Amino acid sequence: MGRWELERAWDLLEEGDLLEALEHAERAYRRHPKDPEARFLYGYLRFTSDGAYEGLRLMELGAKAMGGEACAELWRIYGTEFPAHLLDLARFLERRGLPLPGDTAWAEAVLEEQGLPPEVAREVERWLYQEDIPSLEGFFRKRPSPYPGYLLVRLYLARGAFLRAQGLAGELGEAWGGDWRVELARLLARFPQEGPSLAEEVRPLLARRPKDPHLAEGLALLALGVGEGRVALELDRAFDPPLRARFPHLEEPLEAEEEGRPLVPLGLFLSPGRADVSPPPFAWEAFRSWLPRLGLGELTLWGRPFLRSGLLSPEDVRQEMREGVMRLRFLEEGRPPFVPLASLGELLGASPEEREAASAAASPGELAHFRKAFPDSLLLELYALLYRPFGDWPEGRVRRLLREELPWGVREALRLRLELGRDPLAPLS
After folding, report:
1. Which of 71, 124, 69 is nearest to 95 (CA)?
2. Where are the domains of the chain?
3. Helix extents (H) in 342-429
């Protein structure tokens, strides 16, 4: 039965039906988890369908047992964004006396730029791909060096954790001042507050053409931010596939640059979804340039600080979006019958750093990582409860929380959940 499932999965893959192929490949793998072909095909389909690193791991196990075309396909994937993995595969093939499917010069140049030993670079590459901030920061604290520090700054900035990124960039500057990767991290971390005024300080970096795509991405963002879009386009075209294919947030700013309408990437200076952060003086003009391109959902994601401050009005957007913007603005301003919107962190009086950590955490592990810096944070404790299944709730601690000065709605939600023995918003069935 397992063999039939595997052959059916190959047929469906050739027909282009990836989801159905994945179902059959998974059944084949579950029946024969050590079969190299089942590992390879299931891993390949897992990776191509949802980008899961576990799929890549299974694919590698299968390919190393199968050799030939399987290793060539794995080589192709590693050649796009996994240089340390590619060099590891090259060493495996050389030990087996097998020919290499391609050149390793690019991967060697990237690792030289990173300054990491090959065995370490592979782990860093995995954590970066998975956006595993706790593991990457744990490694950085044990074996500090500029490149992992730069990656952490970029990850924090991408999550909107600007204060944490600034703090880490300051540490990097004290330890490795003068290293260009550190200078890139420091300038990126300063951009949310200082914006295009950093142009003169950025200029010395613009002559660099990094081989590492993550360094190139950061430099391209910075170039776009200070009005040097020409440099960003050169960096984009220096990679195959181009940088914008690997980093989708670059696509619109680069397209706008090609059209002669420069845009400052939104993630450089705005925290997505947050209204409790005051934007810097340059932010409104930078944001206004985006208005013709944004839909209502994107406007809600990025525009809340400007709605709250009253800078963004219905007249600033396309006709078909004006009614939606008016309603959003009424919510932010608290026009009757609404009360002003406020984040839970604001209602609890949490510090900006606590509110940022709560917003940036994307998993229970990351939240636990951030809580180490704020062990007494009521906000982060409440967020931690949201991640826990109800059966794992510490009832005694929740009852003590109910005696805290909580906002009425939060207190009632906790009380209801305890009394009902279930999530009050969950379906009854």
Report:
1. 71
2. 2-125, 131-267, 270-341, 345-420
3. 344-348, 352-360, 364-371, 378-387, 395-401, 408-420
Q: Give the tens place of pLDDT for each residue, 145-178.
A: 999 999 999 999 999 999 999 999 999 999 999 9
Which of 278, 415, 276 lies closest to 348, judged by CA? 276
Q: Residues near 15 by Cβ (< 8 Å), separated by ≥ 6?
A: none
Integer Cα distance of 297 and 273 in angstroms: 10
Residues with Cβ within 8 Å of 406's Cβ and at least 6 positions away in sequence, in order, are 348, 378, 414
> At what angle are helices 180-194 and 162-176 packed, to 10 degrees?
150
Strands (E), 171-320: none
Burial 220-246 (b: 16+ CB within 10 A, else e): bbbbbbbebbebbbebbeebeebbbeb
Number of neighbouring beta carbons within 10 Å of residue 190: 18
DSSP string, 384-402: HHHHS-GGG--HHHHHHHT
Fill in the DSSP letter of residue 101. S
Torsion sign over Cα 54, 58, 63, 65:
positive
pTM (predicted TM-score) = 0.89
CATH number given to 2-125: 1.25.40.10
Phi, psi of 151 (to 5 degrees): -60, -40
